[in-house]
Specification:
Length: 170
């Protein structure tokens, strides 16, 4: 599949909210040196970042899709101060922030589960020279596993573009 950046027209084959050259400039301006790799590697993590954004926030974005045929959630109609022919700069920047994290680890790794399907938490305890590592299945109230790990620097960029999880829309 080709690398296709959404430009605000509602492309049916778009798979990224940001271009490599724009990400290069973004990280250079901020002195972030972790943004490395070949152009193809950078395209790959930008696609992964866009997939993460779509999976985590796609159904919570303000407004509605501009067209029925567009591949991604943006551009949007009725999205407050954002014209329906643009992809907001802060959405592009969030994509860059998620992408740099995708260079070193999966953005949404599979949960560790035991044979019964309960999520597993691994822990280590060290007392003096003795160290013990064990795994415990999470059960009970409040044990729902977190499907998406928070990334504060990127998540904060999406403020104003998504409804909060507790917000009621009528």
């Amino acid at each position: 599949m080709a690398f296709v950046v959404e430009d605000g027209t509602g492309k049916p084959d778009a798979n990224s909210y940001g271009a490599v050259a724009d990400a290069d400039s973004y990280f250079a301006d901020r002195g972030i040196t972790a943004w490395t790799g070949t152009p193809e590697q950078k395209q790959s993590v930008l696609i992964q970042a866009t997939d993460y954004i779509e999976g985590r926030f796609g159904d919570r974005f303000i407004g509605t899709k501009k067209t029925d045929t567009q591949a991604l959630s943006w551009p949007r109609k009725n999205a407050d101060a954002y014209p329906d022919d643009t992809v907001p700069v802060k959405l592009q920047r969030a994509c860059f922030e998620y992408a740099v994290r995708a260079l070193s680890a999966a953005l949404a790794p599979d949960l560790k589960v035991d044979p019964s399907g309960l999520s597993v938490v691994a822990s280590k305890k060290k007392v003096g020279p003795i160290e013990t590592e064990y795994s415990v299945a999470q059960t009970g109230l409040g044990s729902t596993p977190m499907l998406f790990r928070p990334y504060p620097a990127a998540d904060m960029l999406l403020r104003g573009l998504v409804y909060s999880a507790s917000q009621v829309i009528r």
